[in-house]
Design a protein that fits this description.
The complex is a heterodimer of chains A (131) and B (502). Chain A is 61% helix and 0% strand. Chain A has 131 residues and is mostly helical. Chain A is elongated and about 75 Å long. Chain B is an all-alpha fold. Chain B has a two-stranded antiparallel ribbon with strand order 1-2. In chain B, a hairpin with an 8-residue loop joins β1 and β2. In chain B, α3 (74-97) packs antiparallel against α11 (236-260). The longest helix of chain B is centred in the first third of the chain and has 32 residues, at 151-182. Chain B is globular, with a radius of gyration of 22 Å. The relative contact order of chain B is 0.10. The chains are: A mainly alpha (131), B mainly alpha (502). Chains A and B meet through α2 and α3 of A and α6, α7 and α10 of B.
Amino acid sequence: MELILAALVGLLVAAGAYLMMSGYLVRFLFGLVLLSNAANLAIFAAGRLTYAAPPLIPEGALAPGGPVGNALPQALILTAIVIGFGLFAFALALSFRAYNALGTAEMNAMRHAEPVPAPTPTAAAETERPA
Amino acid sequence: MMLAAAILIPMATAVLCLMLRRRAAVARLVSLAGAVALLIASVLLLVTVLQGGPVAAQMGGWPAPFGITLVADLLSAAMVLITGIVAVAVAVYGLADVTRNEERRGHHTLTQALLAGVCGAFLTGDMFNLYVWFEVMLIASFGLLVIGGGKAQIDGAVKYVGLNLIATLAFLTGVGLLYGATGTLNMADLHGIVPGRQDEVAILGAAALLLFAFGAKAAMFPVFFWLPAAYHTPSVTTSALFAALLTKVGVYALLRVFTLVFDAGHPSIQAVLLVGACLTMAVGVLGAAAQNGIRRILSFHIISQIGYMVVGLAIYTPLAIVGGIFYLFHHIVVKANLFLIGGLIARRTGSEDLDRIGGLWAARPWLGVLFLIPALSLAGIPPLSGFWAKLLIVQASLEAELYIVAAVALVVGLLTIFSMSKIWLEAFWKEAPAGTPAATGTVPALGAAATAALLTPALALAAITVVIGLMPGPFFDAAQVAADHLVTPDAYVRAVLGGASP
């Protein structure tokens, strides 16, 4: 079972990385979602997959009766999902705003913060010179 | 409850500022008062730690390693103190710099939330909790970046958000793997488990992921691209806050996790750190040479300076770690100040593009002197604070017989002087180019109150730089104690686990 999960995590990371490298904002976001799910699954698998009872403590007792599943990875994943959801919502809104304000979702065309330097006079002269 | 105060004060201030968002004049003062309260709390915390050694508190009454621990050794306490100093400086500067529009969109709330995240990251003793504080800090910084709403800000924010989210996911996966391999996330508890098992694949894998994540947060080579894309776009106040604190939280996390949990002396980790740090120094300073905007030059210099701090950890001798910590403190003060003064230069000349300004030496010689103090300190000219910081790093690398590292550190220092003199020549000595506001005298004048608000924090930070430079003794001793806490964390572990664990 761990092996299947590990392969799935690998697949998700590979697909996420592929999407992220496309240079297109929307695909980058999809890649981010895949990566974030891969991270959560990795934590889940790292907490050991066991056939055990839910970690419930009977009334009046101080410890669970038999062997129980580990609740901590699930708590970590829940926190990570909540944080990841918030960050993704922000990233989505920001991308939409960027598309509206900059008129493109192509990352290489977004050059407002780091403008391409204007060609220097010598470089301009060289391009004008006939070959 | 000094420990929780450093987190609760900025959080409570953030909530107050949110409720007062329609009354900007009040919110501004509340934000300033919150920053001052944070500074006072941090001084008290530092005094406590100096007198009694590391202190710890268990949140929610759960004993470590099951609950979440807040813990302060000297490094944490000093980082919180310097956060308090920067918080007050930018809050005062912001009185005259932040626009009404940015205030209405929540500048003060986000700034205080960012401070809470930074202090939380410095004080937590738990890996997952560190992740949560990183996120608090990150989401607040996203907000601060975009509240100006201009095209450059949105563009810069897209790159900043994208690259930081990748680092965050690496951090999360690393924490998950570490938990899977050890069954605990308490850093003091991990200190008793990890060191003997560093060569296990899961643990070394977790170390690699965390190294990538913290390296990206600290803007190390080759994962620094988010920084120069974004840092020059928001208001000067926000820029200075980011420049002073955000990357330094990454450096702090490296220092903490790779001494307490992992061992930075492990051959694979040390090799990555050393090569990465040297390339960070070199690439940052070369990137700066190609820039023409004041804040863009300074942004690239953050990257190059991060290299010096990480090299202190990478050499991994006691002296080198002392040097790294000394560098960290000195750099926060100097870099925040340079951004603030860069903003002042832009206010006096109408632009921060070096091609469009000039003639400041004739018009405002005192501003020139004020600029020279942090600029020369950044380059490492005696007797300013940067000289001692660089001296420690170079001396440590020579003692460890890492001559290439020492050579890189010295050459990068020279190139830093080149960059600083470029700003100096262009902004101060050159005549203002014809037709620009600086030449025609059409720069909007500043009122007396605004001038005072902009100048006071810059003067205070410059004074700190000079004091550290002239009397490095006490600061060096403090860095030494902080490094001792890192290298032999017995007192730290005892404070967290109560002496029950080996």
